[in-house]
Design goal:
about 475 residues, alpha/beta, Rossmann fold, OB fold (Dihydrolipoamide Acetyltransferase, E2P), 6-stranded mixed sheet, 5-stranded mixed beta barrel, 12 helices, about 30% helix, S-adenosyl-L-methionine, tRNA (N(6)-L-threonylcarbamoyladenosine(37)-C(2))-methylthiotransferase activity, rSAM_horseshoe, transferase
């Protein structure tokens, strides 16, 4: 593994390139795995509360939305709607603009505030939308003063500064995630890498890490508030630590977290770069049962030439080796992966290599994106594939992912037939997710008041969209 250190030299790198849409599931079941990735907003906070938040994008946005909602309420905001945007694709931006226009029509008296990566990158565009009262930059959005009712004057409604000069990220104590069963904790912010397709570093700034003590305090408070599962999130969490005293790695931080919060039952990690998993994290994957047997890998493609043109840090062989090592250490572990179909210059052979990677690496849950050119990125200047071809290849890749997911669910059913039960975090009285992040619905009577509890369940059936079980 390469020596760790801050990377501002433009070397290839990774970040989380996904959001959490709501695809189809078992009847009456909401699933969080991607079937057709699209930037669908989630509403944070009660529909009739003083502050509502429309969140587009990644898990880090989910955490930040909860923090901003708290800051706005504490500042005294009423009848306010916050739109937290995403810049990963043009479609993400289009849907956010559409949501703003719809919000203006349906809430003519509400004050609409816009923030997030898309707003940070092009604040003038968002400030010019009818009905938008203010645009708040990513460097400002978690500062209490940005939410003051009498906020400092902002030119043309924009409170946005240069994110590229940010040097630290503040931890915010968030203990209410608007009815969610799992909580999110930011451990890292920004990205020092320059993937050729990506604008996120210009929306998030350089990589900054949250001190271990602040992370421990946040997680301890969440456990004391009743959360049974926590997700550590960031833009590029395997770059955690080199800017902190002692330069702790991600694995060292997680190890300390488990030691200092022994009552934490379940921990998940957001997207990991396959070549940046450190030795401590590998040991935790092998021997720490509270670290869930589900890893999400930032892969993006399966052909070496395309990976080089993307300026990724890993090769196809690295991805396969990472999955094989994890599976050897933790038999039965499940893998999610981000994959882009139709990247510039991608041939049918390149695409076939990505299709083959799904089976070769044993990928289970795919987050598939048709390539979307982002203005100003090197990939946008490369020879482009026709949009219909990108969509057709994305559909074929999703079909391969659906087949892989169904195979994994059938394997869990086989385990159940041998007497193995599942531990399920209930997110509603009759549904939740297993340790492997497989969606599960309870047959028969629901369990009222069980939201957020971990129960044992016996799987009785499996379909392409999840598991059907009964409480043990």
């Amino acid at each position: 593994m390469a020596a760790r250190g801050r990377r501002a030299d433009g070397r290839p790198g990774g970040h989380r390139l996904s959001w959490q849409p709501r695809p189809r599931g078992l009847p009456g079941m909401s699933v969080t795995q991607d079937a057709a990735p699209r930037p669908e907003a989630e509403t944070e906070g009660p529909g009739d509360g003083p502050v509502r938040v429309l969140t587009f994008g990644c898990r880090l946005n989910t955490y930040e939305s909860a923090a901003m909602r708290d800051l706005a309420i504490q500042a005294g905001h009423r009848d306010t709607i916050l739109v937290n945007t995403c810049a990963v694709t043009a479609e993400a931006e289009r849907q956010a603009r559409q949501a703003i226009r719809r919000t203006v029509r349906e809430n003519p008296g509400a004050r609409i505030l816009v923030t997030g990566c898309a707003a940070q990158i092009a604040p003038e565009k968002w400030a010019s939308l009818p009905g938008v009262a203010r645009v708040i930059g990513n460097a400002e959005k978690l500062k209490p003063e940005a939410w003051a009712l009498e906020a400092p004057p902002a030119p043309r409604g924009k409170l946005v500064t240069d994110i590229m000069v940010a040097t630290e990220t503040a931890a915010h104590l968030v203990t209410d995630f608007a009815g969610r069963a799992r909580a999110f904790v930011q451990v890292q912010q920004g990205c020092d890498h320059r993937c050729t397709f990506c604008v996120i570093p210009y929306g998030r700034g350089p990589s900054r890490s949250v001190p271990v003590g602040a992370i421990v305090e946040q997680v301890r408070a969440l456990v004391e508030s009743g959360y049974r599962e926590v997700v550590l999130t960031g833009v590029d969490i395997t770059s955690y630590g080199p800017d902190l005293p002692g330069q702790p790695t991600l694995g060292q931080m997680v190890r300390r977290l488990f030691a200092l919060v022994p009552d934490l039952p379940r921990l998940r990690l957001s997207s990991l770069d396959p070549v940046e998993i450190d030795a401590d994290l590998w040991r935790l994957i092998e021997g720490e049962p509270r670290l869930m047997p589900h890893l999400h890998l930032s892969l993006q493609h399966g052909a070496d030439l395309i990976l080089r043109r993307m300026k990724r840090r890993h090769s196809r062989a690295d991805a396969v080796t990472c999955a094989a090592r994890a599976r050897a250490l933790r038999p039965g572990i499940a893998f999610g992966a981000d994959l882009i179909a139709g990247f510039p210059t991608e041939t049918e052979d390149h695409f076939r290599q990505m299709l083959d990677l799904v089976a070769e690496a044993g990928l289970t849950f795919l987050h598939v994106f048709p390539y979307s050119e982002r203005p100003g990125t090197p990939a946008a200047r490369m020879p482009q594939l026709p949009v219909p071809l990108r969509r057709e290849r994305a559909a074929r890749l999703r079909a391969a992912g659906t087949e892989a997911t169904a195979g994994f669910y059938n394997a869990r059913l086989e385990h159940a037939l041998r007497g193995q039960e599942e531990n399920v975090l209930l997110e509603a009285p009759d549904r939740g997710h297993t340790e492997h992040f497989a969606p599960l619905r309870l047959a028969g009577a629901a369990l009222p008041g069980a939201h957020g509890r971990i129960i044992r369940a016996r799987v009785r059936d499996a379909g392409p969209d999840g598991l059907l079980a009964e409480a043990a």
